[in-house]
Write a structure and sequence with these properties.
Blueprint (H helix, E strand, L loop, with lengths): L1 E2 L4 E6 L2 E4 L29 H5 L5 H21 L4 H17 L3 H21 L4
Antiparallel strand pairs: 1-2, 2-3
Helix pairs in contact: 2-3, 2-4, 3-4
Length: 128
């Protein structure tokens, strides 16, 4: 017996009523389909939990970053004239630390000048 109105197949056998689990499927179809839901971690486009719980300010970190940025820039500029490989490498390393602590401009300039100093010291100065 097929009920055409609700698209549900009911089989009646001595006081036992069976309802087909394929709800919404064609009542005359014998095709069984298994479906599953995808499980994935939720995507957070807003602030992270760590940022939301952070109450203090980072002026102390920015002040330390600016001091390190100036130190890195000074080392990189001095490396143009004296010991380019050693002082240039020190300027680059301290420049990366300064950028991480908030002095992005000073750190970037120190990294760039230190790299130029190392390149000039290794490839150009030996010819003079």
């Amino acid at each position: 017996m097929a009920n055409e109105d609700t698209n549900v197949r009911k089989i009646r056998d001595d006081e036992f009523e069976y309802v087909d689990p394929n709800l919404g499927a064609n009542a005359d179809s014998s095709y069984n389909e298994e479906t599953a839901a995808e499980v994935a971690a939720p995507i957070n486009y807003g602030t992270t939990k760590r940022e939301a719980n952070y109450v203090g300010d980072n002026t102390q970190d920015r002040a330390g970053g600016a001091g390190l940025g100036w130190l890195a820039l000074a080392l990189s500029i001095i490396s143009l004239f004296v010991m380019p490989v050693l002082l240039g490498a020190a300027g680059i390393i301290i420049g990366f630390i300064a950028r991480r602590r908030g002095a992005t401009g000073l750190g970037a300039w120190a990294i760039g000048i230190g790299a130029v100093s190392i390149i000039v010291g290794i490839f150009i100065l030996p010819f003079f």
